[in-house]
Structures are given as C-alpha cells and as structure tokens.
Amino acid sequence: MPLESPLSFFISASDSSRLSWSHFNLDIASGVSIFFGGKAAVSAFALQPMYGRIWHGWYNAPGCHAIVWELVRTVLQGPFSLYSERLALSLGLDGKEGPKYIASRSGTVMQHTRHLAYVLNNSSWRGKECKPVVVGQRISPTPMQLMIVDFKKKVPTGNDTLPPRSSRHSSLPMIASAASIAACAMCVSVEDWLSFKMILLGIISSGITSSIMSTGNITLERLKPAHGVPRGDGMLLSDTRIVILRGNEEDVNAVTKGKLRLELKGGGYTVLLCAFIALLQVTLQLVFMPFGSLPGQLMFLLSLLVSVACNLYLSANEDEVQSSALITLLNTPEVKTYQASSRATAAVLACLALCWESNTPPTQVLQEIVPIKPKAWKAWSEFVVDNIREKRTQFVWGKNESTDCLNDEEDKLLLELIDDAHAAHDQYIKDHTIA
C-alpha cells in the first residue's frame, strides 16, 4: 500500500475527524493569540528602515496592536511637524542613555550622553581590526577594552546623513513569510476560505506597513558648536570599556549629543495610515478568526507562532542590528582597539591618546579612570604624568619623595603598575610610529 503524501493525509484526516473536532475548538485561542508578542513586533517593525528592504515583514504577525498604540501615541503627543523625533523615540531608535563623557581639552563633563554614544559603547564593532591588540601580561580582576576612534572625515548630518544599513539576520523574515504562505495553501486545501483570507490579510497588512517603514529616512541632528571652541577630544567611560573620541567638536557632538529622527514620506499622515492598516488587521482577525474551521485555526496559529519566533529573535538581537546600522552614520572613522590587561594599562593608553599630542594635563584623565590618592597610585601617577609631559619615547622611572614612604606591599603594587605603564607606552609608541 503506497504511503500517502502529507497533504493528502491532512485532507483525509480533516474529512474523517469532523465529529471528533466538534468537541474541540480553538475559537478563543485564535482570537486572543493576535495580542501576543507586542513588544517584539514593535522591535521588528522599528528595524525595517535599517534593513531598507521592502520585502521584509510580509508575514502574518501578531502584536500589531502594540504597533498601533506606538504610532497613534507618536502623532497625538505633538504637532505633525515634529513627529519624526517622537517616532524615533517611540520605536526605540533613539532615547537610550549613553555613558559618561569627559572632554579632555575643554574639561566638559557629561554624566549622560545620547543614543549614538550608547550604541558605540555597547557594540562589538572594531573598525577594520579583526581582533583587539592585547596589551600587558598581568592578570588583573579589572581588564578593560579601549577603543580609539579618529574622525578623519566629517560626520554628515541633517539631510546629508548617510543611510544606516545592516545585513544582520536580514534573511530571517523569509522563513516567517514562507510559513505564512504555506499556512494559506493548507487552508485552501481544506477549503477553509475564511482562515485563508485572515492569514492573507495579515500578510498583506504587515507587508504594506513594513514596506512603508523600510523607505523611512533616519537622519542625525547635532548641535552646532560656537566658533573658536577647541577640538572635541574626550572619552566615553564605562565599567569595562573606554572609547576615545578624537576629532572636531561638531563631529564628536554628533556622537555625544546627536538626536536621531525617522522621517516618512507623507509625514504624520503616513504614520496614521500605518496605524489604520495595523488596526484593521487586528480588528478583522479578532472578529472573524474564531469562525474558522479547526484546521484553519491551527494553520493560523502556526503562522503566528513562526512569526512571533522571528520577531522575538530580531528583538533579542536589536542592539546588534542597530549598532551595525547606526555606526555607518559616522562615515567610517579610523579605529584602533586594545584589550588592556588592567585598568592601569587602559588609563595610560587613554592618557597617551588624549595628551601625547596636546597640552591636556594627564592627571585630569588619570583621575577619572583610576584612584591616584593611595600612596602607590600617587607615586605611579606622578611618574606617568612626568613622562607624558616630557613626551619621552622611553619611560624613565626613579625614586622620589612619594616612593620613600611605601611599605613592602605598596612597593610590590607599584612595580606591577609600572610594568602596566611600560606595556601601554611601548604599544602606543609602536602604533603611533607605524601610523
């Protein structure tokens, strides 16, 4: 007896089991299921302008009610003319708080920076470097990564903003689309035209809104500094990473103070159109889906399950996709990344990066990263400051009043700190000479 194909088996099973199915239905489940995954749906929806592909999002996805809420709230919070800034905030494209920033030349301290600084500080991006350069041999409980970002090219802003693009996980929506199309085909095979129409409605409505969003234009807006201000050199400082920014004040401002906006053709009216389409999908599916047959409801739930899995994965990797996309706004700066074995090593690297070619006091940088008041640290910091001020290509160490009062334990710590400083200095001079 030949084996039946999966499709013919499914059809015969549906015909022979109608009596048993009459005692079991998914009416409530199929209606309520469209409200699951709202946060993930908003995250996936917000990533569309970074992918820039109009074929993304063509699948029957749950959670559209959350998208409706965010879009309507965006429009109602203020005038249409300012919707772009509010839209970026509502969809999570802006608004995250970046780390502390210390400007080495002007002395300005910002306790919190803006979204682009957050992305830069938390990304795994290292420019053209495949691996960070390891500096120092000491095993320390506080290793740090230090990244030097040189803005050699001007960072375009406003209407000249470079389009942010990412290819991370860009093929994943194809799986959800294939699952939704397959669910439609199965509904046709059992002649459940109502379920077929509801799944198709989800595909079309989600596809249209995603296509509109994929054509959105993300722009970077920055404050224009006053004439005559010094260079914007400084550092973003967090517990495990230091990001050195070197460049003109306006380029550094784009990272520390820049605002992101999402502009759509048609402005706020386009936002309302997307909200209306998503609301129509939610309403019709909520009203009519419970009247579908059991196999049709199963196919509907299956399409939602695959779609919500796709959205959840994209939501979990939102920071990764954002970082790969938004960093393109910086116009390919030159980057050098170091993996410092200790916080002291990172502190010396930061001093060299910010003070070697300027008149910035090294003490100002050191005290933001390491403690310099304890005796051993005080003696070490004096050595570091003196050698950097003199711009010595070989660090010279000698005893002074600060080293005379150290006990054996402090002497041991000082020697370790000196080794850290030597390693940082030698590596920086090597890279600086090559450059």
Annotation keywords:
alpha+beta; 7-stranded mixed sheet; 19 helices; 10% strand; disordered N terminus; transmembrane helix; transmembrane; membrane
Can you tell me about this structure?
The chain is of the alpha+beta class. Among the domains are: 10-16 and 25-94 and 167-220 and 260-322, no CATH class; 355-435, no CATH class. It is 53% helix and 10% strand. It is built from 19 helices and 9 strands. The strands form 2 sheets. The chain has a 7-stranded mixed β-sheet with strand order 2-1-6-7-4-9-3, with helices on both faces. The protein has a two-stranded antiparallel sheet with strand order 5-8. Strand 1 and strand 2 form a beta hairpin. Helix 4 packs across helix 6 and helix 9 (172-189) packs antiparallel against helix 10. The protein is elongated and about 90 Å long. The model is unreliable at 1-7 and 9-24 (pLDDT under 50). The chain crosses the membrane at residues 28-47, 267-288, 294-314. Keywords: Membrane, Transmembrane, Transmembrane helix.
